[in-house]
């Protein structure tokens, strides 16, 4: 939801393994204590660099600090957070790794996640040099559909770890039924946060009534667990120097492919994107009726993160669905 970096540059990554590993390596007694600078240590060892020539800050982040590390082996992108342990970045890295492994759309390749010696955590990833625009929407639509088609889960709806949507926890407990998952871990979770934070019993009670009665919106369709970016807005979409789309800062999970468009109100998606998408992933009956149920999750999250200016949009969606469903 919140952009954490605004520019990432190309690095030849053939020397790195395709899967990110968080397993602890065996260490000598001398190196067993945490390094004072684990980021530079990794870059100068497993990153195959012999010299860091420059580091420079990258703006755009509201949650994390970001820096570019230039080396004789290429450039790396590093995010740090002094107040949060590695779990947040582990969730991001696992999501980036899952999208990377579909070999469909370009994402920054994650390399390393770890704790900082003074508290907090870091993630090291590929540095991609962004182009001048967000790229071709038709190409983005096709590649998103290809990712959804390739990234499937046999465990149901959810993800291997919980992660975050902006700074809000996102619960990803594996669930076999999509309506149950979306109702409990997406809408229901956000509604409870609103009740706890603002005492807004009106939106909570109406929202819970919608969750209880929303099953007819999903009749006569097939819902498969597809790998979703999960937070696809304009700040998380760019292109590389070749004009190929790049997506970043994910909140990944396996869900209904239509949920990917839940941030479309803040993404500027046009008809060409949807047309290209549906050529690969055909539109299912009732798509238009379900669109706003997926917007609702993100409006509720914005209400939780930024306050009551987003309340009216969320309430309007809830009221419209309660009227449509006659409940």
Automatic annotation (TrEMBL):
Its EC number is 2.7.1.172. It is found in: Plastid, Chloroplast. It is an enzyme of class 2 (transferase). Pfam families: Fructosamin_kin (PF03881). GO terms for cellular component: chloroplast. GO terms for molecular function: ATP binding; kinase activity; protein-ribulosamine 3-kinase activity. The keyword Ligase does not apply. SUPFAM superfamilies: Protein kinase-like (PK-like). It catalyses: N(6)-(D-erythrulosyl)-L-lysyl-[protein] + ATP = N(6)-(3-O-phospho-D-erythrulosyl)-L-lysyl-[protein] + ADP + H(+); N(6)-D-ribulosyl-L-lysyl-[protein] + ATP = N(6)-(3-O-phospho-D-ribulosyl)-L-lysyl-[protein] + ADP + H(+). Belongs to the fructosamine kinase family. Initiates a process leading to the deglycation of proteins. Phosphorylates low-molecular-mass and protein-bound erythrulosamines and ribulosamines, but not fructosamines or psicosamines, on the third carbon of the sugar moiety. Protein-bound erythrulosamine 3-phosphates and ribulosamine 3-phosphates are unstable and decompose under physiological conditions. This is Protein-ribulosamine 3-kinase, chloroplastic.
């Amino acid at each position: 939801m919140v952009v954490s970096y605004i520019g990432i540059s190309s690095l030849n990554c053939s020397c790195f393994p395709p899967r990110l590993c968080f397993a602890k390596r065996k260490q000598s007694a001398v190196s067993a204590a945490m390094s004072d600078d684990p980021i530079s240590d990794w870059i100068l060892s497993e990153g195959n660099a012999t010299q860091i020539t420059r580091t420079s800050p990258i703006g755009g982040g509201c949650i994390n600090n970001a820096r570019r590390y230039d080396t004789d082996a290429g450039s790396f992108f590093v995010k740090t957070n002094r107040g949060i342990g590695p779990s947040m970045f582990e969730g991001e890295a696992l999501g980036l790794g899952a999208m990377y492994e579909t070999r469909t759309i370009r994402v920054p390749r994650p390399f390393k996640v770890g704790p900082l010696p003074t508290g907090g955590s870091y993630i090291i990833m590929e540095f991609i040099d962004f182009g001048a625009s967000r790229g071709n929407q038709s190409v983005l639509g096709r590649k998103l559909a290809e990712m959804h088609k390739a990234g499937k889960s046999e465990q149901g709806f959810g993800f291997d770890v919980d992660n975050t949507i902006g700074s809000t926890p996102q619960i990803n407990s594996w669930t076999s039924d999509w309506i149950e998952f979306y109702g409990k871990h997406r809408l229901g979770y956000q509604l409870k946060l609103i009740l706890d934070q603002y005492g807004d019993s009106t939106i909570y009670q109406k929202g819970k009534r919608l969750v209880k009665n929303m099953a007819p919106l999903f009749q006569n369709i097939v819902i498969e667990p597809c790998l979703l970016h999960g937070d696809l807005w304009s700040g998380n979409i760019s292109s590389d120097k070749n004009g190929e789309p790049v997506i970043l800062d994910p909140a990944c999970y396996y869900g209904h492919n239509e949920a990917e468009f839940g941030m479309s109100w803040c993404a500027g998606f046009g008809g060409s994107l949807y047309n290209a998408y549906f050529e690969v992933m055909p539109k299912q009956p009732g798509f238009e009726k379900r669109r706003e149920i997926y917007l609702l999750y993100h409006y509720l999250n914005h209400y939780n993160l930024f306050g009551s200016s987003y309340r009216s949009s969320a309430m309007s969606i809830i009221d419209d669905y309660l009227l449509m469903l006659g409940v």
